[in-house]
Write a structure and sequence with these properties.
5-stranded mixed sheet, 10-stranded mixed sheet, about 20% strand, alpha/beta, 15 helices
């Protein structure tokens, strides 16, 4: 049995999942990468040692390794048009033909897809909420799940799956239903939408409105999809275990982070998707049950490599970051001034990326849900210039202690101060309380030296080792690997 690595984002995303997938793919000769959640909104940046940069959206982030294939599970939302464009871009960077790249991508036929109507509806909903917008990146991925749950005029949820692209009659019917759903929403909310439309997206959105509220758009989109299927050989499968090689290592690649999860995230600025580790573990159960595996009996020690083992890895930065809207307890002006990320573009939909100190309270909350075996810590090198480093272990709460507060938080009262120690459970009002919190920091001395060329744990400065040890102590999870640079070579085993 091959080894399985399950990666999951612990906080708000943008935590380095892509670079660690690339690292693991080469270190363990991984040939199979399963995208187990999220969708085409992902942007996992990988930089090769040769300096080639690609933002993996729907391809597996380990596909610079030419033997590695990507498997898009039914839990993922696919944008087939964007997928073909990503294939084209990746082929140009790798000198592989688009046909070769596409042949390495396997898609579950049950994957729901983002159509232009979903993306448009996503934009309309956000603008219709005005100052109460959720903070969606505007890709339409969450809208796919939303429209599947909502009852439309015909009393049913609406969605298009990959297999539907091969049924012209059914596809037309679904596109027509989506058109009427979007048209009605626009008509009912037109005044609010136009009033909230900022100048910098006015022209693009006006074009969207003119095209997608026109009934003729149905045939245009239909023909586009039929042409896409005709010109490209999508490799569809009905059961994931039928296309996996049992004896090969597998990486389960996540999208986004736990704090954006539909159920456990910090509402209201969350996605409408499952960003926990659950879907990956469900796929593993399905595959092992199909293959009649008794995992415990198949594990055998071979040096440091355990055959058949599943390793759950939480990915998080050595500090914190968050895109766009939403509560962010440890956001810090100094970090915002000193740290930047050129790979994270700012837009009306994405918002601006913000930076803060490491938040052990939120990581402990994520760990209670994901139960990972170890942490991979990214961007440690980005802290090298700071004389003093901070880690948040508790919050000082300045609001009112009511019944919901008592349900959500583990806390203690010291004199007149209310100190939040842990988050006990998810709640729709959790952000209302967190916004009234001030982080309580543990401060440590920085190392003030470049560590980007370090390749062994023993080469790390003592203060860097102390910082990592403090993170382990406060999160109760071992940090097994850190990143000191953007490429797969800049990773250090701890």
């Amino acid at each position: 049995m091959g080894r399985k690595f399950v990666l999951v984002g612990m906080l708000f995303g943008d935590e380095g999942k892509g670079t660690f997938v690339d690292y693991l793919a080469y270190k363990y000769d991984v040939r199979q990468i399963i995208r187990y959640n999220g969708g085409s909104q992902a942007s996992h940046t990988v930089t090769t040692p040769e300096g080639i940069v690609h933002k993996f959206s729907q391809l597996g982030s380990g596909m610079f390794k030419e033997e590695a294939n990507a498997y898009l599970s039914s839990n993922m939302v696919v944008n087939p048009c964007d997928l073909i464009e990503e294939v084209r871009q990746f082929s140009l960077k790798t000198n592989l033909s688009p046909k070769t790249v596409l042949s390495r991508i396997f898609i579950d036929e049950k994957c729901y897809i983002v159509t232009p109507y979903h993306k448009f509806m996503n934009h309309l909903r956000e603008l219709g909420k005005g100052n109460e917008r959720r903070g969606s990146v505007g890709s339409g991925v969450s809208e796919v799940r939303t429209l599947l749950r909502e009852k439309n005029l015909l009393g049913k949820g609406l969605g298009v799956q990959m297999k539907d692209l091969y049924d012209r009659k059914f596809l037309y019917q679904r596109l027509e239903e989506l058109y009427y759903c979007v048209f009605k929403f626009y008509k009912d909310n037109k005044d609010m939408i136009l009033r909230n439309m900022p100048d910098n997206i006015w022209a693009n959105l006006q074009n969207e409105i003119e095209f997608l509220t026109d009934y003729k758009s149905i045939n245009y989109i239909l023909c586009n999809y039929l042409g896409l299927v005709l010109e490209n050989n999508f490799r569809l499968f009905s059961e994931i275990q039928s296309v996996l090689q049992e004896d090969k290592n597998i990486i389960f690649e996540a999208s986004q982070g736990l704090l954006l999860d539909e159920n456990y995230g910090l509402k209201p600025n969350t996605t409408i998707l499952d960003t926990t580790i659950k879907n990956a573990l469900s796929i593993i159960d399905i595959v092992e049950e199909k293959n009649g595996c008794d995992l415990k009996s198949k594990e055998s020690q071979e040096g440091n490599f355990i055959q058949g083992k599943t390793t759950k890895i939480g990915i998080t930065k050595a500090f914190s970051s968050r895109h766009g809207l939403g509560v962010f307890p440890t956001e810090d002006a100094e970090l915002n001034a000193c740290i930047s990320d050129l790979n994270q573009e700012e837009s009306f939909w994405n918002g601006k990326i913000r930076f803060g100190w490491f938040d052990a309270v939120l990581v402990r909350y994520a760990q209670a849900i994901n139960q990972v075996d170890e942490l991979y810590l990214s961007s440690v090198d980005r802290l090298s210039s700071f004389k003093t480093l901070k880690i948040c272990d508790k919050y000082l709460y300045t609001g009112v202690v009511d019944d919901d507060f008592k349900t959500i938080f583990e806390y203690e009262q010291i004199n007149n101060d209310i100190i939040i120690v842990n988050i006990k459970e998810s709640h729709k009002n959790i952000s209302k309380y967190l916004i009234q919190c001030k982080p309580i920091y543990t401060e440590l001395d920085g190392w003030n030296e470049d560590i980007s060329m370090v390749r062994e744990k023993e080469q790390l400065p003592n203060n860097c080792l102390r910082y990592i040890c403090q993170i382990e102590n406060l999160t109760t999870v071992k940090v097994s690997t850190i990143s000191v640079g953007p490429t797969r070579t800049g990773k250090v085993l701890m």
